[in-house]
Structure formats: structure tokens, C-alpha cells
Amino acid sequence: MPETITIDGPLTWREIATVAGGARLAMSDAARKRVVDARRIVDALVERGIRGYGINTGVGALCDVVISRENQQALSRNIVLSHACGVGEPLANVEARAVMAAQIANFAHGYSGVRIEIVEALLALLNANIIPLIPSRGSVGYLTHAAAIGLVLIGHGSAMHGTERLSGAEALDRIGLEPLRLEAKEGLSLVNGTPCATGQAALALARMERLLDWADAAAAMTYENLGSQANAFAEGPLALRRSRGLQTVGKRLRDWLAQSPMLAETAGTRTQDPLSLRAVPHVHGAARDTFDHVAEVVNRELSSVTDNPAVSGTPEEPEVHSQAHAVGAALGLAMDGLAIAAAEIAAISERRIDRLVNPLVSGLPAFLAGDSGVASGYMIAQYTAAALVAENRRLAAPASLDGGITSALQEDILTHATPAALKTLSILDNLERILAIELLAAAQAYDLQPRSGTKAKRTASLYGRIRETISTYADDRPMNEDFDRIRNLMQGATL
Q1: What was the pLDDT predicted at 129?
Q2: Which Pfam families does this one have (predicted)?
Q3: Whether CATH 1.10.275.10 fits 4-192
């Protein structure tokens, strides 16, 4: 049986990523009570005619248009339909599950005011892995992505069940439900808040955490192959620089390279190594420090209410608050930072690849080709890495500064948290490919070593795992097939 994550208090980014990966999601009795109580407050607001944005008013620039009680259900339905204008390829299953998990967690705080039936339908779809098709593009924040989920709840839109595409009505039928009739506020709540950005941010953190470990491993293999100086990672001198991430990377590199005969053989042959080797703790460590900060921001976001308006009080004394909690400025800034950190890790990896393939600095056969001239070896693999680094540089431009004006000046500052998270995922995909190339190039370099080639225990073990799957390259097959094989290894193996 899949693992079950239960919402009681706030979820963490790790829990969102776990649900995105296939775990079931449930709600505690306390969380269910919070949802039910918040709905009673909305019902009281409606009954008393207390003005509330998107409850009994229009939305956006129409916020001062009062909606009669008999039209409030139509308002909710129309909000979902009109906001479902996303375009482009749909989010992958794991990405869409992350959005749904974060959305349910946001409702479970008990300040949104949707009925428990809405949350139960979302949970049932998620746990049955019947996942709405969410177009990936066309939103400056979150509206179009979330509306695609809301569509399915009212019997419109599409969902995927494995490889089978279902209409919204068919998706609901699979879980024993009829299309839902939305009540006051529910349409706005279904398209509102930062769950889309938060869900993608949780995935980005999970992927970044894994790739940071692989980046250290790849750097260690390259470092050993290039005859570098092991004392660059000595604990005492590294401790002079105040950075938890730097100390973590330094320790990991010492573990990877412990008692390396190859490094012992080249000890003292250089005064210092080039920065792409010597500064691995500093660059990789800075990225880890950024990761820690972003993780804190995302967890803080998950513990926050990001619906607008939020409701509070009691049915006897209901309150509605039109704040800007749906604005994801903190997430946008954080994800821009994580994107740059990932791009930096990719950039230093490509520089190490270049040193491996360049005979002027490596002391190895040119381009790691056994028959230089007839064979090109890893010559063009380095081109591929350089191209991906250049793409990362373009993607790393800050999305949070893109700005824009929407809704007739009512929404006149945009922070682009969801685009920031999505482009971070693209950079991480490129990072994974670049690290895959470095790992393969380092394994090839071991095969061509003119020295003894006796590796450290841990690098020898990783080399063996690579060679169990991918043989030495001899211009005898398309190289991109090897890239796919090593990525599969990276995604399924632990270090």
C-alpha cells in the first residue's frame, strides 16, 4: 500500500513532494472540522448580506459590483469557467498532484470556507490518481492552473487516469460523484491562492536536494581524475569560511576521496588547483545554503493561509478579510534564488567537463577518445553541456521582476511565483543532464588513466555502478542514449 500523509497541522514541502510522487493524502478529524466551521462562517456572511470579495461581489476590477444572492452560485461557476484559459502542454502527473496536494492543504487551514464536499472530491480524485489536465502556460500567478482543477469538479475539463483521458464528468463518475454545484465563494477559492507555485516549489526542492548530492559525487570523480590536491578540502582551513553548506560539501568530498591512491600519487604537484575544482565546497556549499533558505520559505508558505478573502470569527460574528495573501512574492523571490543556484551548479559542472576533455589540462587522451582523430569521444558531449548552461542562463533571469498589469489596474503588480517555480524545474532538468555528462566523462577518464588508476573506495564503487549499466564509450553508439541511462541511474539510486 502507498504511504499515507495525513493533514492535521501544516504540511511540509517534503510531504507535498511525497504525495506528488504517489502517496495518499488524508485529513484528520481536526482538519475536517476546520473546513466545516469555515463554511458555516461563509453561510452566515451570505445570510446576513455582509459584503465579501468574490462571495457576493464580482472579482478583479469588478470587485465593487454587488451580486444578488440568487446569482452567487452562477458567479462561482462562471469564475471557474472564465478563468480556465491556460494554454500549452499539460503539467506532468507528479506536478499536477503537487498542486492538488497544496490546494487541499490550504483549504484545511480552515479560512477559505469551501464545503467539505469540495475537499473530499479533491482527495478522492488525488487518491484514485485521476488527475486533472492542467495547461502549463498562460498564468501570471495561479488562476488558470487552479481553474483547470475546478473544471473537473463541475464536470468540465479533462483528467488522466493512467494513460486514459476522461472528461470531467467521467472522472467524477469513477469516484462515484456527480458534477458539483458550487456555492458562494467556492469558485473563487478554487482558483485562488499560491498552491500551484507552492506545489511546484516542493518538487523543485526535492529534485534539487537529490542533484546536490550527485553534484558532489561527480565533482569528486572529476577531481580524482585530474590529479588535484586533496588538502583543498581539509576540515580546518575550510572552517575559516562561515557557511554550513560549505562545511557539508567539504565533509562529503573528504568522504568521497578518503585515502585515494590516485590523489596520493599527485600530492604536491601543484600549488593550487583551478577554481572549478578548488572552489567546489564554496560553490556547491552556497547552493546548499540557498536551498536551506528556500525550504524555510516554502514551509512557511505551506503553514500560511493564501486565500483571498479569508474568513474568520464565528457564524454568530462572521468576519471576512480582503487582504493580499494570494500574492506569492516570497515564493517568487525564493524560486528565482533556487533557479540561480541550480544554474550555478550546472555551470561549474560544465567547466569540470571541459577540463576532463581538454588534453592541454587533463593529461588524458583528447576528448577522452581512445583513438583520437578517428573517434570524437566526448568532444560534442561538452558542447551539449555548454548549450544547456547557456539555456539555464536565459531561464535564470528573475521571473519575480517581470511585472505586468492586469484586471484594469486592479491587479497592477505581479510577482510571477508560478512561472518562477516552473522555470526552476526546467533548469533542474538541464542540471540533471549536465551532471549525467560529467559522471559519464569521469567514468571514461578512469578508463584512460595513464597512472595507476586506483580509486578511492567510494568513487570506485560509483564507477562500478555506472559501468554495470553503461560500458566505456568508443564512438560505437549514439551518446544521448548513454545520457538517458545514467539519468535513470541517478533517479533510482541513492548515494
Answers
A1: 98
A2: Lyase_aromatic
A3: yes
Q: What percent of the chain lies above the pLDDT cut of 70?
A: 96
For domain 201-492, the CATH class is mainly alpha
Helix axes 116-127, 143-153, angle to 10 degrees: 90
- Grid coordinates representing 481 are 542514449
Residue 417 above 90 pLDDT? Answer: no
Give the least confident one: 139-153, 282-296, 334-348, 418-432. Answer: 139-153
pLDDT tens track for 308-362: 899 999 999 999 998 877 778 899 999 999 999 999 999 999 999 999 999 999 9
Share of the chain above pLDDT 90, in %: 77
Per-residue cell: 317 = 460574528
Inform me whether the pLDDT recorded for 224 exceeds 80. yes
- Dump the DSSP string for 160-184: EETTEEEEHHHHHHHTT-PPP---T
DSSP percent split of the chain into helix, strand, coil, nearest 5: 60, 10, 30
DSSP-assigned letters across all residues of 80-132 = HHHH---EEEEPPHHHHHHHHHHHHHHHTTS-S---HHHHHHHHHHHHTTEEE
Q: Quick one: pLDDT at residue 69? A: 80
- 320 φ, ψ (degrees, to nearest 5): -130, 135
The residues that are catalytic are 53
CA–chain centroid gap for 349, Å, is 20
For 286-300, write each residue's pLDDT tens digit: 999 999 999 999 999
Beta pairing, strands 24-27 & 4-7: parallel
Estimate the crossing angle of helix 379-395 against helix 329-357, to 10 degrees.
160
Tell me: pLDDT of 412 over 60. no
Locate 376 and state its grid cell: 570524437
Set of cell numbers at residue 185: 465563494
Q: Is the pTM of this model over 0.90?
A: yes
- Please check whether residue 211 is in contact with residue 231, taking contact to mean a CB–CB distance below 8 angstroms: no
Look-up: residue for cell 464536470? 155
Query: Residue 382 and residue 353: Cα distance in Å, rounded?
Result: 6
The Cα-based distances of 454 to 40, 438, 470, 479, 491 in angstroms read 71, 19, 20, 26, 27
Region 426-439: mean pLDDT is 98
Q: What is the side-by-side order of every strand in the sheet holding 164-167? A: 130-132, 158-161, 164-167
DSSP three-state, residue 319: strand
pLDDT at 406 over 70: no
Judge contact between 298 and 197, C-beta under 8 A: no
Distance CA 429, CA 413 (A): 30
Task: Look at the alpha carbons of 355, 359, 363, 369 in this order and tell me if their dihedral is positive or negative.
Answer: positive
